[in-house]
């Protein structure tokens, strides 16, 4: 998984009825776009994440399609 600043990280819900959690990558802390990432959630709080298999990166160019 590789991401850049400004990409969105989508963590899919794990149970029926749970919504996806979307955050924006504000800093790439790994080398060459690899995790961990500092992300900002829609409510404004930030966290450091090393995404698992339930996550997907939406690159900036893909978001506008």
UniProtKB/TrEMBL annotation:
Pfam short name (any one): DUF1918
Domain DUF1918: 1-57
Biological source species: Streptomyces sp. 900105245
Protein name (database record): DUF1918 domain-containing protein
Superkingdom classification of source: Bacteria
InterPro entries noted in UniProt: DUF1918 (IPR015035)
